[in-house]
Write a structure and sequence with these properties.
mainly alpha, Ribosomal_bS20_sf, ribonucleoprotein
């Protein structure tokens, strides 16, 4: 348990940060799921639109410190390759 005032404040800040980051991760996963569903349905136009919507969200996750830059780059690259492979 935090005893010093500084440790108590850090604990409060960590809780707030955790909630914000959790919401952001959830939002990003929702965008990714929409892309995955569009790819699974085989609709190239919907998949392209979903990917275009997901890319800024993913990159925002990088700037906010939720994901690492290379992780997001890899995800975008793999998803775009899968969308491109659709008929």
């Amino acid at each position: 348990m935090a005893n010093s005032p500084q440790a108590k404040k850090r604990a409060r800040q960590n809780e707030k940060r955790f909630a914000v980051n959790k919401a952001r991760r959830s939002r990003i996963r929702t965008f990714l799921r929409k892309v995955e569903e569009a790819i699974a349905s085989g609709d190239k136009e919907a998949a392209t639109a979903a990917l275009r919507a997901a890319q800024p969200e993913l990159m925002r996750g990088v700037t906010k410190g939720v994901y690492h830059k290379n992780t997001v780059s890899r995800k975008i690259s793999r998803l775009s390759a899968r969308v491109k492979a659709l008929g």
